[in-house]
Design goal:
The protein is α+β, with helices and mostly antiparallel strands. The protein has a single domain, classed as Transcriptional Co-activator pc4, Chain A, CATH 2.30.31. It contains one helix and four strands, in the order ββββα. The mean pLDDT is 92.
Length: 77
């Protein structure tokens, strides 16, 4: 579980496509800040499938970084 403060572009030596999982997102006001939380849940083949697996949080400043990436690399508007 982590709160992202900075995203940095990097190059991968080897890429592997991960298994598909379900995710949920939450918007929460906390200490006067709006936070986006994305939580992933265990894949179907996992013993505890559907169990909370990983969570990342972004404040408004940090959330702007993936937003900019989606616009520039995926053509989102």
């Amino acid at each position: 579980m982590a709160r992202i403060i900075k995203l940095e572009r990097a190059e991968m030596q080897r890429f592997q496509l991960h298994d598909e999982v379900d995710a949920k997102f939450f918007i929460q006001d906390y200490d006067g800040r709006k936070l986006l939380q994305i939580s992933t849940y265990g894949r179907d083949s996992r013993q505890d499938r559907g169990k909370l697996s990983q969570t990342v949080q972004f404040d408004e400043q940090a959330a702007n970084e993936p937003f900019s990436i989606l616009k520039s690399d995926f053509g989102f508007k």
